[in-house]
Request: fold
Amino acid sequence: MSLLVVGSVAFDAIETPFGKTDKIVGGAASYISLAASYFTQKTNLVGVVGEDFPVEFVQHLNNHGVNTEGLQVKQGEKSFFWSGKYHTDMNTRDTLITELNVLGDFDPIIPENYQNCEFLMLGNLTPKVQQTVIERLVKRPRLIVMDTMNFWMEIALDDLKETLKLVDVLAINDEEARILSGEYSLVKAAAKIQAMGPKFLIIKKGENGALLFSGKEVFFAPALPLEEVFDPTGAGDTFAGGFIGYLAKTGDISFENMKNAIIYGSAMASFCVERFGTERIIDLQQSELEERINQFKRLVRFNIGASLADGN
Ligand code: AMP
Reply:
């Protein structure tokens, strides 16, 4: 089933305890669509870059089956640029630079043949732009998943709340869930956020895994314990791409199937963090993904038989 991905396509400069990069290609929509491409060949991307953006990367996306007809290229302008630094604790990072450039006045134009998509993934962007995308779709997709960040909670909370009313799934990290809800308990936070609109809430906890909430139901997926996390940039977006890509492949949007989608998202994210930027997820083998899913299964499988009361 077809998937529409909207988000930043950008340059990033990253510093981690393991090294430092100059400007490399990043952006939420780059990670999301690459990750989704391992599940569905019907991914359509909407975004904007400047004339400085490398055509080779756009070709990589096309080779992955991602349609980039909706990627606007602004002549004479520069691409979005973000720079971040991670410390020893890779769960937190400092944003050093955010240069909006072309993203500053981004008007998300949806090409005619992107209409009637069944799945929509709204990457982290101004809530107003996210809302505009939904309004410009002639038919509401079956499932709308949205990412956002604390930055928008601070400067555009009212717009964010309006957009939240229109989406089915919100994917944010634990710190953002606490800020948005004003609750420290993630269970209470989940209830409050669901009352704002999304029927499903995914709370990402970095190396501590992810939680999926819907009504009274909750599911937990661990992150794969890795010997070395090299660069966590894009892990959240890669997770989201794997999640929605799997749902688009299977066409099943039940809570039960979302559990599987969360495991696939976590597996994709576990690859992303192994190298800088999109390096690791750009040419992943299907067999590597399958092996990682098996690792996840082994990680959480246990066999408790009779209850304690039955034993002696
Ligand atoms: P993640 O590590 O999954 O949260 O996403 C990292 C990606 O988000 C980077 O590649 C950045 O280019 C992109 N990014 C960072 N800040 C913003 C922003 N304010 N708007 C859109 N994209 C952003």
